[in-house]
Design goal:
alpha/beta, three-stranded parallel β-sheet, six-stranded parallel β-sheet, about 325 residues, single chain, about 15% strand
């Protein structure tokens, strides 16, 4: 079997890689054709061709359509024998976030990539931020400067070493949403009294206990971006994330995770519970904090307070 895919990053993590690993365990995997710098995610495959220089959100023509799971948010037909539209409300809750696991096995990323060179201590936490347009809409799923300031201050008081990740989108293969984000020059910044305009990257420089993932990457030029990311994340058990591909990546490494959820598909009741793929990837304990995009637009701002409170309760 040859897997040939170039979907959104989250789809590849949840739908393609576990299928490829299952095929490998069955002795059926011949080759994987994927995007640039994705070979580390298919470490178990003998032949990986990093062919594509752009991802696509078109699931009818990016390779996902040929996988057992073609939709990341549920596979109601395989799980229940009925289409999602034919399920009652209780049945929908049961299948939200649940995939067909009959040909699905996540690789043991944590065991494979754990590396003392990238170990920053037992009390290390990943803060995985992003800012990206979704189907042409203004971004709402991100941690702003004030939110980051509160997160950093609290975790610093608790003596955590913080690894901050917020891609600039030149580190890996991107899709149409990320291309639109770059064109619109979205960034994370705010005017701070007595200092002036501060970006999220600049904010981290005011703390002795915060390390930029990009700095780790630059220090270890012998590895690719994804190799460094995987080796670093494999040594961590605590994660704070934005829901989506961001949180799915964190979920590959188990531990506990507080994730901020704004977009519609992940808002489905039960999405992070029970047999959800987010939990089955590596047994992560996930605490989703919901702030619907529709409510953010209506009120005119993100309500991070419940999210901050959950971080304080968890870590």
């Amino acid at each position: 079997m040859i897997i040939d895919v170039r979907p959104e990053f989250g789809y590849e993590l949840a739908c393609s890689i576990p299928y490829a690993y299952w095929l490998k365990k069955q002795g059926k995997l011949e080759k994987v054709v994927t995007c640039k710098d994705m070979k580390p995610f298919y470490y178990f495959c003998d032949e990986v061709e990093e062919k594509y220089e752009q991802r696509s959100v078109d699931n009818s023509n990016n390779g996902v359509e040929k996988l057992p799971n073609t939709w990341i948010h549920h596979n109601a037909l395989a799980v229940t024998g009925k289409s999602y539209g034919d399920l009652n409300e209780e049945e929908r809750v049961e299948v939200n976030g649940v995939l067909d696991y009959s040909e699905w096995e996540p690789p043991p990323f944590k065991d494979h990539y754990k590396d003392d060179t990238f170990n920053f201590g037992d009390k290390t936490i990943i803060v995985a931020n992003k800012i990206s347009m979704d189907h042409g809409k203004e971004p709402h799923a991100f941690f702003d400067i004030k939110c980051l300031y509160e997160i950093f201050n609290y975790l610093s008081e608790k003596n955590y070493t913080i690894i901050y990740k917020r891609p600039q989108m030149n580190e890996f293969t991107i899709d149409e949403n990320e291309i639109h984000t770059i064109r619109n020059q979205y960034t994370i910044s705010a005017d701070v009294d007595g200092i002036g305009l501060v970006t999220d990257y600049e904010l981290t420089k005011y703390y002795d206990n915060i390390i930029l993932l990009d700095d780790i990457v630059n220090k270890h030029s012998e590895y690719t971006y994804n190799e460094v990311q995987l080796k670093t994340f494999a040594n961590v058990d605590n994660f704070i994330s934005i829901a989506g591909g961001n949180s799915t990546l964190c979920s590959l490494f188990g531990g506990q995770q507080v994730t901020y959820v704004t977009t519609s598909n992940e808002l489905r009741p039960g999405y992070f519970e029970g047999n959800s793929f987010t939990k089955k990837l590596a047994g992560a304990k996930i605490y989703p904090i919901i702030d619907p995009e529709s409510e953010i637009v209506k009120r005119g701002y993100n309500d991070y307070e419940p999210f901050i409170n959950k971080i304080k309760e968890t870590f």
